[in-house]
Write a structure and sequence with these properties.
The chain is an alpha/beta fold and about 150 residues long. It is about 35% helix and about 20% strand. It contains five helices and five strands; from the N terminus they run H-E-E-H-H-E-H-E-E-H. Strands 2-1-3-4-5 form a five-stranded mixed beta sheet. Strand 1 and strand 2 form a beta hairpin. The longest helix has 15 residues. The protein is globular. The two termini are about 25 Å apart.
């Protein structure tokens, strides 16, 4: 683990991931920040909502768009505990999120630095700035603990 504290948005995303685990959901959390303030916070809820699209990123994007009264989240940052999948990366591009911060890489299902690499495709409508690794050990520990408890 790093010797410096995590930025508050990543800490909030990790808190949301813990809430997901407590609800029996895969522990992934996301927050959206605009102007330095968290405007939306969510966690995975596909099982709870009976909705395969209820990923943390999608839920946070929906809440932020509603809070801002706009489908474009221009100038917003998304902080999430795991590398987004292709569906979520597509939503990030459509929402025009400016910056994406994610904690842990996901070689199996991620689509930013792995798999489809959505933002690298010529068809991608918008490419956010991408930063990874902050909170990686904390996020990975949450995921490993969650899945090992179910095996």
């Amino acid at each position: 683990m790093n010797s410096w504290p995590l930025p508050p948005p990543m800490q909030a995303a990790l808190d949301a991931a813990r809430a997901a685990a407590d609800a029996g959901e895969v522990p992934i959390g996301a927050v959206i920040v605009k102007g330095g303030a968290i405007i939306a916070q969510a966690h995975n809820a596909p099982r709870t909502d009976h909705d395969p699209t209820a990923h943390a990123e999608i839920m946070a994007i929906r809440a932020a768009a509603k809070a801002l009264g706009d489908e474009r989240l221009t100038g917003c940052e998304l902080w999430v505990t795991l590398e987004p999948c292709a569906m979520c990366a597509g939503a990030i591009a459509h929402a025009r999120i400016a910056r994406l911060y994610y904690a842990a890489s996901d070689p199996k299902g991620g689509a930013v630095e792995h798999g489809a690499r959505v933002f690298d495709q010529p068809q991608c409508l918008h490419r956010p700035e991408v930063y990874s690794g902050m909170g990686e050990s904390e996020s990975a520990a949450l995921l490993k603990g969650f899945f090992s408890a179910r095996r």
